[in-house]
Design goal:
With 268 residues, this protein is an alpha/beta fold. Helices cover 29% and strands 28% of the residues. Strand 1, helix 1 and strand 2 form a beta-alpha-beta unit.
Length: 268
């Protein structure tokens, strides 16, 4: 049987280019999440440094570096799952990578952002990822996407096909386009009958202005939790059985016509 778990969405601002200070502030949120019985706490995209599509040189680390080592230490000390992200060493260019850490401090999954935000030049400074990030925590099968990935439905279809119940989407989605953040989060959830948790950042950085507004959508596309404007922790019960039940009762994906789609594509 599958049982609900509590997800904590940590909507917070980065201390710009100050990982030490941000990590300290993250520990405070982790301690609070544990007090509220969360099994997993998820942070926004690149929150340790602040997301900067043009900066591919500072604080670039591997998994043995201080950012991931500290997050693993926090996971062990507080016995909680953590989703964090960092600028990962990779050649020829770094990767924008999110890592899921288990409550024992072990690395459960890695995901590097596949769709880089070319309108801001992220594709010039970073290398795209080329694989999925899938892990389980307390029986809930989770996938990872990052921010701009929300615009690309194919990635979420792949996660559905491997049995994921929840996709976590750490983001630095700007205030000016928040209507699209809502649109894509709820659309992907309904489209693929999956929980989607969009974890957004807050504050003003040299890159843009961010207004929080994190969104957690259920597998029918309804919004079940939403962040306000500001820093806060959002707690949401995620029940994987809801995903499984909806897919049984409303098996829309059995009506896909993949062979026909492929033939029509070839004939174009």
């Amino acid at each position: 049987p599958l049982f609900p778990m509590i997800l904590c969405t940590a909507q917070m601002a980065p201390s710009w280019q100050d990982p030490h200070l941000t990590l300290s502030r993250m520990e405070e949120r982790i301690a609070e999440a544990v007090e509220c019985d969360a099994s997993l706490i998820a942070f926004p995209e690149q929150v340790v440094t602040g997301w900067d599509p043009q900066d591919a040189t500072r604080e670039v680390q591997d998994e043995e570096g201080p950012i991931i080592s500290t997050l693993r230490q926090y996971a062990r000390e507080y016995s909680i799952g953590i989703l964090g992200s960092y600028r990962q060493i990779h050649h020829p260019r770094p990767r924008n990578t999110a890592i899921a850490i288990g409550p024992g401090g072990d690395i459960l999954a890695r995901y590097s952002k596949i769709h880089l935000f070319s309108p801001a030049g992220e594709d010039q400074g970073y290398s795209p990822g080329d694989g999925l990030g899938v892990f389980s925590i307390e029986g809930c099968r989770c996938g990872i996407a990052i921010c701009y990935d929300l615009r690309f439905a194919d990635l979420f279809r792949l996660y559905r096909e491997v049995g994921v119940h929840l996709v976590l989407v750490p983001s630095a989605w700007p205030h000016a386009r928040m209507k699209h953040f809502d649109l894509f989060t709820t659309s992907r959830a309904a489209e693929f009958q999956i929980f989607i948790a969009g974890i957004n950042t807050f504050g003003v950085t040299p890159v843009d202005r961010y207004s929080g507004g994190s969104v957690i959508a259920g597998p029918d596309g309804s919004v079940i939790s939403r962040g306000c404007t500001g820093e806060e922790l959002i707690f949401t019960e995620i029940d994987p059985e809801v995903t499984e039940s909806l897919r049984r009762l409303f098996p829309v994906h059995q009506d896909r016509m993949d062979p026909l789609y492929r033939r029509l594509s070839r004939e174009m």
